[in-house]
């Protein structure tokens, strides 16, 4: 008998792009861990942030079951992708297998993640500095992307890596975001509403990497992917609609 055609498509740049949007454009995720006592799968919900290199970031209490589980076994899975009206299985979703790494409070990484997390989740300021709260970086190892009917892909660790170019653009992320807000006060709202059909509101830029920029308003988040990766401020401005005229 002839082999049946595979339902898994060859991973291409469009699949990588959709996977980045589903992971880095998510405010929260379902997280699966291994219960250290029963060794059974356990699922919970976490707020989701991101590091600049492609890793997902969570802020968790030491009292939560998933924190205890990750401390005992770093293997975890994240599920992102929000359904809308109708059949929930008709909407794109991403399941990512990760390795979790705790971030020490006095590390340089902690300050960077704290700044990025608060820009995305300002309400977390109420508890982010509690001594029993900590960050975990969740580095993707593999993933399954269901991009819609007939669009299934398997992704590897390399598909999620976002390289950080040399230079100070990404070392001064908050300064760049402030500069963007001052130069183009309506640009974030314009991109969110006109390019991504988001509701009207006072949208602001909350973080970026070489592949895209994140825009937030209240409890909403939009991931805007660049056409090409950026390495300089000039390239960043050129990738943002209607800002190219202001490049120095």
Termini separation: 64 Å
| Class by SSE composition | alpha+beta
The helical percent reads: 10-25%
Spatial shape:
globular
- The topology string of helices and strands comes to EHEEEEHEEHEEHHEEEH
Strand proportion, as a percent range, falls in 25-35%
Low-confidence stretches: 244-248
Major β-sheet profile: 9 strands, mixed
Give the count of helical stretches: 6
Compact overview of the structure:
The protein is α+β, with helices and mostly antiparallel strands. Strands 1, 2, 3, 4, 5, 6, 7, 8 and 9 form a nine-stranded mixed beta sheet that branches. Strands 10-11-12 form a three-stranded antiparallel beta sheet, with helices on both faces.
SSE topology:
Blueprint: E1 8-9, H1 13-24, E2 28-34, E3 41-47, E4 49-50, E5 56-61, H2 65-72, E6 75-80, E7 93-103, H3 108-120, E8 133-146, E9 152-156, H4 173-183, H5 187-195, E10 204-209, E11 212-217, E12 220-225, H6 233-239
Parallel strand pairs: 1-9
Antiparallel strand pairs: 2-3, 2-6, 4-5, 5-8, 6-7, 7-8, 8-9, 10-11, 11-12
Q: What key phrases describe this protein's structure?
A:
three-stranded antiparallel sheet; alpha+beta; nine-stranded mixed sheet; 248 residues
């Amino acid at each position: 008998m002839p082999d049946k055609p595979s339902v898994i498509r060859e991973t291409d740049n469009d699949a990588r792009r959709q996977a980045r949007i589903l992971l880095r454009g998510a405010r929260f995720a379902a997280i699966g861990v291994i219960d250290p006592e029963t060794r059974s799968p356990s699922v919970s919900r976490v707020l989701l942030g991101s590091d600049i290199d492609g890793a997902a970031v969570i802020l968790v209490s030491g009292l939560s079951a998933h924190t205890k589980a990750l401390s005992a076994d770093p293997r975890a899975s994240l599920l992102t992708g929000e359904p809308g009206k109708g059949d929930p299985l008709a909407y794109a979703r991403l399941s990512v297998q990760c390795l979790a790494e705790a971030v020490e409070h006095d590390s340089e990484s902690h300050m960077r993640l704290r700044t990025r997390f608060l820009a995305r989740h300002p309400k977390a300021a109420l508890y982010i500095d509690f001594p029993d709260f900590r960050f975990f970086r969740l580095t993707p190892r593999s993933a399954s992307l269901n991009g819609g009917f007939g669009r299934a892909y398997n992704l590897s660790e390399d598909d999620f890596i976002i390289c950080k170019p040399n230079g100070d653009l990404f070392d001064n992320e908050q300064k760049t975001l402030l500069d963007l807000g001052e130069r183009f006060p309506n640009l974030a709202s314009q991109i969110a509403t006109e390019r991504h059909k988001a509701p009207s509101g006072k949208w602001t830029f909350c973080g970026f990497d070489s592949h895209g920029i994140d825009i937030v308003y209240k409890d909403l988040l939009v991931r805007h992917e660049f056409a090409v990766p950026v390495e300089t401020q000039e390239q960043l401005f050129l990738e943002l609609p209607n800002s190219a005229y202001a490049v120095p």
